[in-house]
Amino acid sequence: MKKLFLLFIATVLMFTISFAEVDKLVLNYLNDIELGEFDEEDLQAYEASMGNANSDQALFKFLEARIQLYDYKYKEAYLNLESALGLLENEEDSVLKAEILYYLADMDYFFFDLTSGTQRSVELRKLSEAIDYTKGIIESDYNIAFSYIYNYDYDQGMLVATEAFELSRQSDYALGIVDYTLFLGDLDYYYGDYLKAIAKYEEAFNLLSPVVHDYVVEEPHQLIRRVIGSDQIKNGDPEAGLQMLEELLESIDVKDTYTLFYVNYKIGKYYAESDPAKALDYYMTAQDLYFKSSIIDNADPYEVYFYKEIGNVNYDLGNYKEAADYYFKTLNFDYETDDDAVEAMLSGLDEIKYDEMNSKMSLLEQLNIANEERVLLSRYFIIGMFIGILLLLVAVVIIVIENRAKAKTEKELYYNSITDNLTKVYNRGKIIDIFSKNLKKDNSVLLLDLDNFKDINDTYGHIVGDEVLIKVTQIIKKSIRECDKLGRYGGEEFLVFIEGAGQMELHEIAERIRYNIENFSWSHKGLVTTASIGVTSCFSDEVEAILHEADTLMYKAKHLGKNRVEFG
User: Fold this and answer.
1) pLDDT of residue 302
2) Which helix (DSSP H) or strand (DSSP E) does residue 565 occupy?
3) 367-424 pLDDT, tens digit each
4) Three-state secondary structure call for residue 252
5) Phi and psi at residue 483, in whole multiples of 5°?
6) Contact, 200 vs 182, CB < 8 A?
7) Over the Cα atoms of the chain, what is R_g?
8) What's phi and psi for 498, nearest 5 deg?
9) What domains appear along the chain, each with residue ranges and CATH number?
10) pTM above 0.70, yes or no
């Protein structure tokens, strides 16, 4: 028995040493990567000497992904990292696992899969705390902070980012300090202070080391230059921004399809009004590059943005058929995905927010178990019976509370699944579901788009933009009948399902909505809102045909001068 016990101890120590050796090796390689001293030859050398353990195979795939990222092979690197993570699924927590999660989360964010990026960041945060890995804690915190501001929780985002900054200073993690400055720039941008945001990005650029090797997708100097150039074009000095992006375009590696896509798209936006033909060339180049660089099938569909831009420049060039085709393509994107992403992110963030509460509940459970054991050892039967009855009553109370909480949670989950997160009216999926089940000719659909909403965001900031969307929702609700159904169709677009209204009443409803939006008095100086509206009957059994007709009428109203209603 003693020999078996010693054998068991030896086995445990062997695995502990093995994992410790792997982490030590990983840290050595990470140091080489940071110094720019890791290349293809080092990868081949490791492959020739590595063992057959899962951790050895996972480390090779991680290092191979690093080389692939230097060579802009995003898809191959992503697959390698996912495979490496799968090899470590049943292994102990380690620095290697943390680094793989860090790389995957960063790639998710770069390629617009915010849901997956946040979920991986939450997992990275827990793992890094468990193994006391400072870099993992810092990087996950910055991602989580970004997720908070994406969900309009600026205060919580700032709190998490500040904690990451303090930890970066204490541990002398230079990239963490740069990340904090970039985060402050992002926060200024969300608040609408664009010049201050550009200044923060420039400050972050100056904080960088002359050469950075330990990045994930995009080299930091290049990333910050394209962000500054893009923001200058949009909200600062357009000519300076164009020059910066054109210089950057000349220096980008031809294999770096991600950055080439982004820069071409932003230069296209610069020329959109002054030279639509030139803008169209840049947009079409950007579209080709986007599909070459994209790695995640379920990512947020960024192409919807340049579909709309391509539609606009085609319209300006008189290519009306091409413009209509691109406008219609934007209808194929289900904006409800954004709501699902918000829910998924918040559920992940809540795991961190309530970790302390969960640990207290775990301690309470342990105390209850200890109490039950003492009761079983008691010599007094009557005391034991009394406690048993009391525990039974407590259990009954807990079951009742749990059932009520479960019913409330299910109700909240259902509400969230059909409701737009910002405006609290039906989301796109639900409002379409309502009218698709009532396709009668005496029913109608009204599609509304706020005019010049981008200018409102650019002038007053996204917080005021959100305020406008919320207030316009309330205006529309007060302008329609109780039996009518309202939903947010996407962005600044709203859809109203109108049941059983005659032509005269239908005209009155649409005109009332338009009039009330135009004549609302805003507290922000110079802020004026108008809307372009398209109204059509449910003339077909095909939902897409009705939506396409409503969309066409809405754009007709917009191109005939805006602030008007067009009826089908």
Assistant:
1) 63
2) strand 565-567
3) 444 445 554 554 555 565 666 666 766 666 666 666 665 555 555 566 677 888 899 8
4) coil
5) -80, -15
6) yes
7) 29
8) -115, 120
9) 92-246 (1.25.40.10), 354-418 (no CATH), 428-567 (3.30.70.270)
10) no
